[in-house]
Design brief:
This protein is mainly alpha-helical and about 60 residues long. Helix content is about 45%, strand content about 0%.
């Protein structure tokens, strides 16, 4: 092996977060749901979530 073919030494403790872990990090902003400010899309999403929860409980 010549001088240009030396293995690269990497510090395994200094590689940072994976793509998945980066996506899990929160921005620190808490969002509060308000029934008065909900539009039709919010209400539809909430109804779908409730229906999915009921299906999941029924299948267990």
């Amino acid at each position: 092996m010549g001088q240009n073919h030396k293995p690269i030494k990497r510090n395994k403790n200094n590689q940072g977060l994976s793509q998945f872990e980066k996506n899990l990090q929160s921005d620190g902003i808490d969002v509060e749901y308000s029934e008065e400010l909900a539009d039709t899309d919010d209400l539809e999403a909430q109804a779908r979530a409730n229906a999915a929860d009921q299906r999941a409980k029924r299948n267990n």
